[in-house]
Design goal:
It is built from three helices and eight strands, in the order E-E-E-E-E-E-E-E-H-H-H. It is an alpha+beta fold. The strands form two sheets. Strands 1-4-5-8-7-6 form a six-stranded antiparallel beta sheet. A two-stranded antiparallel ribbon has the order 2-3. Strand 4 and strand 5 form a beta hairpin. Helix 2 runs antiparallel to helix 3.
């Protein structure tokens, strides 16, 4: 049995992703509301590694709390979103590298599109806080994609 070498966690600074969002109440009202994201919705770390036994590139998010996970239905067949059973938070992704016919260079380019589609499938079934979590997860992936997918170079 081949052992999987998991990549180290890449630290995510929550302050980079916890920007208030203003919501206007329309032309009739003179009210603005600032919404801040719960610290439980913002990942504290992210990592990517190739799981040789399952032949999948795995991306995981680390949050303040842990919870059981499940694979979300919907989205492209090459990428599956892993969500929290209780909260619906984005916990990670499993990317079928063989199905994408990806190499270390093309994975970064092709997988981000597929991940965005998987996120959109999750987002379409989510409440407002979970939509914010998926937006932040997407931003972290885009910001850290080079570091995350560098683990593919060693496979």
């Amino acid at each position: 049995m081949t052992e999987t070498k998991r990549g180290g966690w890449i630290r995510v600074d929550p302050h980079d992703y916890d920007q208030p969002h203003e919501i206007g109440m329309g032309d009739m009202a003179d009210v603005e509301v600032n919404i801040f994201i719960s610290p439980f919705e913002i990942p504290r770390g992210v990592r990517g590694y190739y799981d040789q036994a399952r032949r999948r590139f795995v991306i995981e998010f680390k949050y303040i709390t842990r919870e059981p996970s499940e694979v979300s239905a919907g989205g492209p067949p090459e990428v599956k979103a892993v969500v929290g059973k209780k909260t619906g938070r984005i916990l990670g992704f499993e990317i079928d590298v063989d199905r994408l016919q990806a190499t270390s260079v093309s994975l970064r380019l092709g997988a981000i599109d597929q991940i965005d589609q998987a996120l959109e499938a999750v987002r379409s079934r989510s409440s407002l806080p979970r939509r914010e979590n998926s937006r932040i997860a997407s931003k972290v992936l885009h910001d850290r994609s080079e570091e995350l997918f560098s683990a593919m170079a060693s496979t």
